[in-house]
Amino acid sequence: MKTNEEKDRQKQLKAELKRKEKENFLSSLPMSTEQFNELFDYLDEQLEQEGCDDTLSLTESYLDEQGIKHENVIAWLEENGGYCDCEVLANVEEKFENL
């Protein structure tokens, strides 16, 4: 059976691991969290009107409107499961929920 000291140490280690994972995630972002949140809002609105065409065309339109270069953002989105506009919302947006 674990002592209270061991339990506290385990909690500390878990908290430190979560903090480092969050820090690593944030440092990997190719644009700010605010820009990602704006992208998610934009996609939510546009996909409701237009639907998904299985490309990142709406994401690219947003990036163009904001003057953001595509290459790093698109590569990052794809690495995180965003291969089309609806997948950006389905797979990538959830990674921002606990920030």
H/E element order: HHHHH
- Helix share, percent: over 70%
**Overall morphology:** elongated
Which residue ranges are poorly predicted, with pLDDT under 50 across at least 5 consecutive positions? Answer: none
Summarize the structure.
InterPro entries: DUF2695. With 99 residues, the chain is an all-alpha fold.
Account of the 3D structure:
There is one protein chain. By secondary structure, the chain is mainly α. The chain has two domains: 1-29; 31-99. 72% of the residues lie in helices and 0% in strands. The protein contains five helices and no strands. Helix 2 crosses helix 3 (57-66) and helix 2 packs across helix 5. It is elongated and about 60 Å long. InterPro entries: DUF2695.
Lay out the secondary structure.
Elements: H1 4-28, H2 33-50, H3 57-66, H4 70-79, H5 85-92
Helix pairs in contact: 2-3, 2-5
Pfam family, one: DUF2695
List keywords for this structure.
elongated, mainly alpha, 99 residues
